[in-house]
Amino acid sequence: MRTRAIKRPRVARKIRVAQESRVVVMAGILSACLPLPAEAQIGSVVVRSPRPFGLFVGDRFDAKVEIEAADGFAPQAASLPKPGPLTYWLDLTAVSVAPGPARDGHRLWRLSLTYQTFYAALDVRRLDLPAFTVTFASEVAHATTSAVAEVPGWQISVSPLREIQPPPVADPVEYLRPESPNPRLDPALPRALAWAFASFGLAGLLALARDRAWWPFRHRPARAFAAAWRQVRRQAARPDAEVAYREALLALHRGLDRTDGRRVMGEDLAAFLARHPAYAALAQPLDRFFRASREVFFGRDPSVAQRTCPFPDLMATARRLAAAERAAKAGGRS
Amino acid sequence: MTTTRPSLARVLQRAWGPVRPVMIVTLPLAGAAGALACAGLSWRDGNANRTIAALEAGQDRPVAADAVPEVLLARIRFLAARERLDEAEPLIAALDGSGSPALRALAQIALGNARLRQAFGKLEAGDLEPATPLVGLARQAYRRALTLRPEAWDAKFNLDVASRLVRDFPERGREQGEEMPADPKKIWTDIPGQPRGLP
């Protein structure tokens, strides 16, 4: 890569030592006639550009300015060139500064500049980029010292896009580029995402149906209480309360029998709970259920049973049994 | 390691207990919500593409300022091609707020082309005076397009065409920059009003 380098050593000038007013005057005189240490504050200034040629109208191009400054000196942000139009054909679009490596009491400061040219060239020609200055300041004890680095102007070479005399056309509009087709939206990505979400949701729905023993997992052996709860709930809608109560009791009995794999009677409850500790929290409601069942099927007065364990209680018990069953057999492992 | 592993597994298992019933209900709901949202987006994109196709085919479709940027651009181009630039202004402002730099550059190019076509019309009719500001407006639009997207080659080419119609000169008193008096014979090379061939 060929770079363009302009070396300007010893261009620095001491501006002021602002401790006392008379020192300022002294410094002005001294800088004019004496080799001051201030001259060493700014070393070489080098401008590098990776491609300062072959630029068309509207092209952006970069420049790197390397400024050697004494240790402790830093460029003042306010003195950097501001992004914006510089001349009628040149914009400065970006400016940034970063400290580089330090060596022999000097630090290399790297200034990155991005320009944009709007020069509509008729032939290949060289153009001058404006020079600018950057103020470096040092904060030493009791005094502020500043030095100015002068970045020299440099040249770029711009190229034309078209021949000087284009062939004549019937309609001058033909000189213009035809408009490109309007950009379209791409619905493929949201469509693919919609399908992915839909299949994900369907898989989740299947898992939920299996967990709750909904259709088509209605007759899952591992969800006996879920089936019982469904039957009890259906009884609640029946007009004949007596028959509904009996059917609900029978449904719960079937659920218990299927869960245990054998017939469970009232006196077996303790053993059942020992075998299935997941339902231990429901010992009292189950006890009431067995008493109510005995009253209905073997007792004389079915209304006593409805007092021992009213129908809403029965429903609540069935629902809690189904929930305990789901929690105990999570994922259908048993 | 041997002691922490089973305990970690146990902790996870204990945490999974209360989380599971919530998860198993939330997952299908989240899936359905996501599928609905994405289907809505896809439907909107399809609708926008149909509107763009209609505008490209020359059928006028009303477009609100809060429409998709691509639709805004299609409408701006439709209006610019018919020299209805006053109607396009609010849409360009809306596109500047919502669109990507590439789309905004395309809108500026359409605007510049419209101005330049107007200028060509004036020049063909022999009205040189009103053509100059129109060329200036076109150049401004192309320059804005290039600021937004420096690799917009159509804008570069058309800016070159416009620049040869009316060149700008460095202002007097400005020291920076190039100073290059151009040969007037070379500047006015492709003025459309130039006589073509012999009478």
Automatic annotation (TrEMBL), chain B:
Residues 170-199 are annotated as: Disordered. The chain crosses the membrane at residues 21-43. Keywords: Membrane, Transmembrane, Transmembrane helix. Residues 170-188 have a biased composition (Basic and acidic residues). This is MxaK protein.
